[in-house]
Amino acid sequence: MKRPADIARATTRYNFHSHTQWCDGKAPIAEMTLAAIDAGMEHWGFTPHSPVPIHSSCNMSHESVAEYLAEVKRLQTLHADRIHLYAAMEIDYLGPEWGPASDYFRHLPLDYRIGSVHFVPSDSGYVDVDGRFESFREKMSTYFHDDIRYVVDTFYDQSERMILEGGFDIIGHFDKIGHNASMFRPGIEDESWYRARIDSLIDRRDKHQDTRDGGTHIPRPPMARPPHRRTYTHRSQQRRPCARQNRLRPQIWHRTAEPP
Q1: Rounded distance between C-alpha atoms, residue 260 and residue 95, angstroms
Q2: Could you tell me which residues are beta bridge partners of residue 115?
Q3: Cβ contact 47:19 at 8 Å
Q4: pTM here?
């Protein structure tokens, strides 16, 4: 396939980030494909949340990967003359042992890869900081002693390490933590240290724009600097509620990192 960045330059009729029934999506991808065709889309990428070596009801299982890839291939053949479909994943970065650059994902026959951070380590294990604010607020008290600075800094630390390690084509919601953080502490995104973290992440991306992934040259996608103030919308109700949390301690989670 063409690189996502090249497709984006050629048309606006594309979507490279959509979840599926194998993770926290609802509609079967066969229905999504027909809806995309009816809407006049030309390119559509499926990106279920990747398998992870910790418990998460939001993420697809290792066992469902083959079924997912087979269904996308079937739909690609069925609708080849109507739309370009792509089998991809939104891959969770947990650290050097598990992320877009891991051998497991490098060897999957994916058309492209999104690299994202959803989990932040706590004393009790990795905790999902995405999702509804009510859940986030409870987790802040339970796992992080209401230390929002730690959560934000660690989110961006993880993101910068993910960029350094590479292995992905698109950066997923690189300032995602801002949604819940700004509800937990209004105005946090205007604080100088927070804006410095955004700038640092973008600078890190710029310095490591080109990486090598299995011998294939993959340029990093464009990533615009966020505006001084942003307006967020709540997560679509078409996604199933889910809970991610690892009961293992961060230093031992990687013992279960290899897929069965």
Answers
A1: 19
A2: 91, 171
A3: yes
A4: 0.80
